[in-house]
Amino acid sequence: MSLVPKPYTDMLNKSQKKNLLEIARKSIETYLSSGEKLSLNESDPVLMQNAGAFVSLHKKKELRGCIGSLVATQSLFLSVRDMAIEAAVGDPRFPSVKLSELPEIEIEISVLSPMKQVTSSDEIELGKHGVLIRKGLHSGVFLPQVAVETGWSKEEFLTNLCVHKAGLSADAWRDQNTQIYIFSAEVFSEKDNK
Asked: Structurally, what CATH architecture does the domain formed by 116-183 represent?
């Protein structure tokens, strides 16, 4: 009998979340001080499952970097390690994080469920679903927490996603040739896990 993995929402216990947050922080610290990726071994079967993840960095409540992988290409603990480094040094919107500012950085991790294509925006639940919009070579994504943080209506959410993230027209989400995917995320941060 094979075990079917649980969905990612509420999949992680407090200890696993704490472990992932520590991996993210140590990964950034190691990379900023040595230029090397943190060498890791993991035995927790949940953290060894392949999963997409985003790592967001905040400094004084302002975004300082955010990079993620939508597709599950490696174990969750390795995704978190790699995305933490990328959020610190690879987000083109921000200068690289300096080692001296790391104590002021708060780390947030979003562990993603698999993507599901939808045929109508009616299937999107704001605050529950993240959304990926794709049309031709253009694509953009908002994590589920964006709707909560901005207070946007569904139309505002989708319009901003098209214009500011995907580089599409404001109403591209209404176009039948535009693909819409939804996913959920388990979101947790250092402030929640102290």
From this structure: 2-Layer Sandwich (3.30)
